[in-house]
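Write out this protein's structure.
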Amino acid sequence: MPRPKRPPYRCPSCHYETDKRHSMVFHFTELKKPCPKLHMMEDLTDEIKGWVLQNRVYTPPPPPPQPARVTHHTTINNVNNIIAGIDVLEKLQLLMSHKYPTQTLLAFDTKVKEEFKDRAARIEEVVEEEGTDLSQLEHLLKVIDQACNVQRSSFDDFCVAFDTMKRLQISEEGGVWKDFVVEQGVQRIVATVQEVFLNSYEMHLMRTIITNPSHYVKQVFNEKLAAYYKFLGALDLQPFARELRYDSTASGNTTSQSTSRDKLQGFEKTYDKVVGELKLRERKDIKKQVTDIVTSSAKRNVDDLNRSMLEMLRADAAFMDSVKTKYKRKHLAN
């Protein structure tokens, strides 16, 4: 009976084959450059080479048995799904009542005042020393982003959210949340930031244009004002100059004596001219960039909330049980 043919020696790395053992020894030891790793990621160790020279074909050892999945990890994965199914505002209430029971959720208007009131009072310093040029869209977007973002670990400044129905949710006084279609929500947010902070910037520009004797400075600040008005016009917001002309006691009117109605009317005409010349493409582009900033911030707030919930669930078994129980009861009720 013929003897069965033995397989050739095979290099597990490049699949070089030979019937001669000494040729494989040369391949392993004498090549100027190591053979390429075409079929195996790990290095050719002495143990692997010895296996080939003894058995001709290298057979990798079976992988070690996988340890049994830990129940806690399984539970966390399940709770991930639970968290995703709970309403955003309900999650916020769960987290705050359990982790920060003494904190009160701020209304969006209050948060913006806390965030920007001091900067509005020192607007010239903000513009000159901080380099915040609010005639540039990127700086305005940064301000809007800051107004929407959760800044505190206690989440009491969680004021803007984006729900599963793709609506913006904004916190009002008395713990009430109001739903907005995105475009209306964006306008509500920017209008609040305008009232608290941006009006002071417009006032700074107008004051400089009126009082600075330099023609060059006036020209530069008129250009800045026109750029800022383009931003307002794209979002269908009115200039502060218009409010001041009809109400000399309006908040922020610190130059009512030197700012006559005629001069304010001149700024209004500048606004009307800028908006009249604003192209539809420019208007859409500005609106889109502002909307993207607001919705991204709102989504990031929800992501941060989910992450904080998971961290607490990992550390607090009692909280995990209460969340799971609440979720199950809700589903049974439905």
